[in-house]
Amino acid sequence: MTAQPFLYVVVCAAGIAGDAHKLITAAQEQGWGVGVIATPQGLGFLDTEAIEDQTGYPIRSAWRSPGDPRPLPPADAIAVAPATFNTINKWAAGIADTLALGILCEAYGMGIPTVVMPYVNAAMAAHPAYGRSLDQLREMGVLVGAYEPHRPKAGGGADRFRWEEALELLEGKID
Ligand SMILES: Cc1cc2nc3c(=O)[nH]c(=O)nc-3n(C[C@H](O)[C@H](O)[C@H](O)COP(=O)(O)O)c2cc1C
Which residue ranges does the record assign to the Flavoprotein domain (predicted)? Predict the structure, then answer.
């Protein structure tokens, strides 16, 4: 690839979402252009101004109006980080009721390399739908981060959530 590759970082409403700037920094240091798509709930976890300053693009969360220009270049790869229980299950089931999910559901058919970095507690992860959804996403070729669910109501596991793993998983996947 000659042009700068472009990464979409899809941010869901998980407790760790406010640290998404760490992934953006790491990606930019590796030469990626980065645009952020937040779920409507995820938007509330982000410092919009800081992220937009960092990426140089507006955060996308809602669909544009017909005829409006596309705010972001097309994606060469997508990292869903952090990924919630909710968005993982809806994505695997083919539900596209947020812009983020619409982009993810379409990415499969477009063949865009995609990584999911779940950040979910063990009680949610015990729900049978969750394992089935991750299996479905793996079957679709989605690369899954290794984070092990944290204990519920115990402060989360931010210290062992490796943002840079998203980029490691994408290595060699871009033409
Ligand atoms: C403070 C706070 C922290 C949350 N942390 C998580 C989390 O770490 N993982 C998760 O799956 N859901 C978490 N949730 C629940 C999600 O925000 C909720 O399921 C929401 O509907 C997810 O929306 P989204 O998938 O469209 O981003 C949290 C909610 C709140 C209010």
Answer: 8-138
Could you tell me if the CB of 41 is within 6 A of ligand 1? yes
Number of separate domains in the chain: 1
Say which CATH number the domain at 120 has.
3.40.50.1950
Residue 2 lies in a domain: no
CB-ligand 1 contact for 12 (6 Å cutoff): yes
- SS3 for 114? strand
Tens digit of pLDDT for each residue in 12-33? Answer: 999 999 999 999 999 999 999 9
Strand-pair partners of 31: none
* Cα distance between residue 133 and residue 85, in whole Å: 9
pLDDT tens for 161-175 read: 999 999 999 999 987
CA 83 to each of CA 13, 28, 117, 120, 152: distance values in angstroms, whole numbers, following the listed order: 8, 21, 6, 8, 16
Ligand 1: residue whose CA is nearest its atom 14: 14
- Residue 105 belongs to some domain of the structure: yes
Q: Which one of 16, 36, 41, 161 would you pick to mutate in the ligand 1 pocket, going by the greatest count of ligand atoms within 8 A of its CB?
A: 41
Using a 6 Å cutoff on CB, does residue 114 contact ligand 1? no
Segment 117-143, tens digit of pLDDT: 999 999 999 999 999 999 999 999 999
Which residues span the domain enclosing 142?
A: 21-65+72-170
